[in-house]
Each structure stands twice: as C-alpha cells, then as structure tokens.
User: Which sequence fits this backbone?
C-alpha cells in the first residue's frame, strides 16, 4: 500500500477531488497548510505599505491506495492540479506497512 501526499494550490482542490472521485478513489484527507517552495513567498501592498509574506496558503491531500493504483492516482492528481504556473505543488508516495479500519478491525488492503 502507498500513502499518496500532494501539496497543491487551494483553488485546484475541487478539480482534484472530482478527478479522484471519478476514479473511485475513496478515503481522502484534506488539510489547509502553508509553506513555500521555489516562489519563496510574495509581497503584498496594504494601505500603501508593502508586506512580505513568507508562506503561501496550500492544501495537503493524503490518500492511501493499493500498490497497483499508486501510479495512476499520482497522475490523476498531477493532471488535475496542473496550472503551469510556479507553485503548482508536489506529489509523493510513501510506503504504508500497516493500516487498520478502526470500526471493523479490518487490516491491510481490505481496510483501504
């Protein structure tokens, strides 16, 4: 099993969610986060004064899938999150050694 984690722009969340739902990926966790990558933050002007904002708002998506579905899930997220502009985000996969569904006690792939 793999944990797919994606950091994307907030306005692309609906597109990613719809694309994953169409592929029947169920079980999605979304967290509002902030950070920066290559763009190193940005400057804004408020009431004539310039402010440097180091962290940009982002959305973190976590989804656990089977080994077979990992590459396709990553590609779905990349395609749906893509804008072609700096700050589109990152997607990575991590091995999951064990998963348990708390309600039923199911373990492994059946718990996904």
Assistant:
């Amino acid at each position: 099993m793999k944990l797919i984690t994606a950091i994307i722009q907030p306005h692309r969340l609906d597109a990613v969610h719809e694309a994953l739902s169409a592929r029947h990926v169920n079980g999605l966790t979304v967290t509002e986060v902030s950070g920066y990558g290559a763009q190193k933050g940005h400057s804004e002007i408020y009431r004539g004064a310039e402010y440097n904002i180091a962290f940009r708002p982002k959305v973190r998506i976590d989804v656990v899938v089977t080994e077979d579905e990992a590459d396709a899930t990553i590609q779905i997220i990349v395609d749906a999150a893509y804008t072609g502009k700096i700050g589109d985000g990152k997607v990575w996969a991590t091995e999951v050694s064990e998963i348990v569904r708390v309600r039923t006690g199911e373990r492994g792939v059946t718990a996904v």
User: Anything to note?
Assistant: Strands lie at 2-8, 29-35, 42-46, 49-53, 56-65, 89-95. DSSP finds two helices and six strands in the chain. Residues 2-111 form a domain with the Alpha-Beta Plaits fold (CATH 3.30.70.120). Residues 70-81 form the longest helix (12 residues).
